[in-house]
Amino acid sequence: MRTVRVGLAGCGAIGRVVALELERRRSPYRVAALFDPRPESAAGLASRLKPRPRICRDLPELVTRCDFVMEAASRKAATEVARAALKARKPVLLMSTGGYLAAKAELDLLARRAAPAAKLYLPSGALAGLDGIRAARQIDPLSEVTLTTTKNPKGLLGAPGLTPAQTRRLKSCKAPFTVYRGDVAGAIDRFPANINVAVTLALAADALKGVRVRIVADPDIHVNQHEIRAKGSFGELSCVTRNLPSLLNPKTSALAVQSALAFFERRIVPVEVGN
Ligand SMILES: NC(=O)c1ccc[n+]([C@@H]2O[C@H](COP(=O)([O-])OP(=O)(O)OC[C@H]3O[C@@H](n4cnc5c(N)ncnc54)[C@H](O)[C@@H]3O)[C@@H](O)[C@H]2O)c1
C-alpha cells in the first residue's frame, strides 16, 4: 500500500502516542505534517519522528500538506479541522466527537459533498460495545440506552459545567456522588473533555436525544469506567469498560489512544472483523 500522509492536529496524549506507534509498526499511515499551538509540543514530537514531519503554522496549512487529517486536540479544534478537511475533500478522523456534534448539520452536509473521495470518521474512543449497539438497532429502534461514567474526582476537576459547590465537593469528597444526570448535549457542553464517549454512543445508537447520561465522581475509583445498558427488540445489552488513564493525560483513557490505532489498522488489513 502506498504511504498515506497523515496531518495531525494536536500533539498531546493521543496524538503523540499514535504518531510514534504508526512509525514503530511501519504503517503506511505516517504523520507527515503536524500542528499544535504549543510550539514545544509540535517540535518535541516532530524531533522523535523519521522522516521528520512538517511543523505547520496553522490548520489550513496542515490540511494542504496531507492526504488524511487526524484531530486529537479539543472539541473546538475538532469542528474547525473537520470543516477544513471536508471542504478540501480529505478524509478526517475526529477524537473529540463533541466537535462533530457542535456543528452536526453543517458537517453532515460537507461530508455528503466530499463523498466518495472523503469521509468523516468518529472512532469508538474510550468505549467498548458500539458494534453491538449499532447491530441492535438495525430492525427496531432501541427502547432504552443509558451511559453511566464514573471517574476519580481528579479527572473531572476543571470541567466548565461544574458549579462552585460541586468543585468544592470534588476536592473533599469521601464517597461517590452524581455530578451530572441528563442528555448527551448537556453532558458534552458541561464536560467537553470527559464525555466524548456519550456522543459516540448516541450516534452509534442513532438516538442523539434518547441516550440518558450520568456522570459520577468516586474518590475510590482509579479507572475511567463507562457502563452502557441498552434494551430493544433484540434483547438487552450491558457493557462495562474499566479504562486505565493514559500516562500523559489523566482525563484521557489509554483505550482511546488504542482505538485510533485500531482504526488505522482496520484501514489496511485484508480481512475485517466486527461490524
Ligand atoms: N473519543 C474519545 O473517547 C476520547 C477519549 C479521550 C480523549 N478524547 C478527546 O481527544 C482530544 C485529545 O485528547 P488528549 O488526551 O490528546 O489531549 P491533550 O490535552 O493531552 O492534548 C491536546 C493537544 O492539542 C493541542 N491543541 C489545542 N488546541 C489545538 C488546535 N486548535 N489545533 C491543534 N492542536 C491543538 C494542545 O496544545 C495539546 O498539545 C481531547 O479533545 C479529548 O477530549 C476523546
- Round the mean pLDDT to the nearest integer and report it: 96
Q: CATH top level of the largest domain?
A: Alpha Beta
Q: Going across the biggest sheet, name each strand in turn.
A: 3-2-1-4-5-6
Q: Given the C-alpha coordinates, what overall shape results? A: globular
How would you describe what is shown here?
The structure is a single chain. This protein is α/β, with parallel strands linked by helices and 275 residues long. It folds into two domains: 4-124 and 256-268, NAD(P)-binding Rossmann-like Domain (Rossmann fold, 3-Layer(aba) Sandwich), CATH 3.40.50.720; 130-250, Dihydrodipicolinate Reductase, domain 2 (2-Layer Sandwich). It has helices at 13-24, 39-46, 59-64, 75-87, 97-101, 104-114, 130-136, 153-156, 164-172, 184-190, 196-205, 254-268, and strands at residues 4-9, 29-35, 54-55, 68-71, 92-94, 120-121, 144-151, 177-182, 212-217, 224-232, 235-243. The strands form two sheets. Strands 3-2-1-4-5-6 form a six-stranded parallel β-sheet, sandwiched between helices. Strands 8-9-7-10-11 form a five-stranded mixed β-sheet. Strand 1, helix 1 (13-24) and strand 2 form a beta-alpha-beta unit. Helix 1 runs parallel beside helix 12 (254-268), helix 4 (75-87) runs parallel beside helix 6 (104-114) and helix 10 (184-190) runs antiparallel to helix 11. The radius of gyration is 19 Å and the shape is globular. The model has no long low-confidence stretch (mean pLDDT 96). Bound molecules: nicotinamide-adenine-dinucleotide (NAD). Residues 9-15, 35-38, 41, 72-75, 77, 95-97, 125-126, 193, 196-197, 200, 248-249, 252-253, 256 line the site of nicotinamide-adenine-dinucleotide (NAD).
